[in-house]
Amino acid sequence: MASGFGYNGGRSRCFTYWQEFSKCYAQTDNPVACRPQSDDYLECLHGTKELARAKQVKDELVRQAQASVDEGRKAADIAAAGGVVGVGLIKRTTEEESK
CA–CA distance from 13 to each of 3, 22, 27, 52 (Å)? Predict the structure, then answer.
């Protein structure tokens, strides 16, 4: 990456971000004004924000899967406890349900 060339001999993937940053840095008297361009360039190089977001998404998927497993386990425990499970094939009257 330091040479400015990509793997196939062309521009590197972050070259446009580098150009934006260097243009801003050359034109300004206050380097702090170029912080957004610097952040974009560093994100392109290292991908830290992208990796953090991917980790958040993965953690949420794992949490939802665990919640689904827990719900299934509760239903299985109720069925295994010997309770009669109705499948809805026979309609009961209100008198039979109260017994």
Answer: 12, 16, 24, 20
Structural contact between residues 17 and 44, judged by C-beta atoms closer than 8 angstroms: yes
Average pLDDT over residues 1-22: 81
DSSP 28: -
Side chain identity, residue 82: G
Q: What is the pLDDT of residues 20-31, one digit of tens each?
A: 999 999 999 998
* AA identity, residue 73: R
Task: State the DSSP string of 65-85.
Answer: HHHHHHHHHHHHHHHHTT---
Beta bridge partners of 11: 5
Q: How far is CA 18 from CA 10, 24, 25, 37, 87, in A?
A: 15, 10, 10, 8, 65
Is residue 34 within 8 Å of residue 28, measured between CB atoms? yes
pLDDT at 97 over 60: no
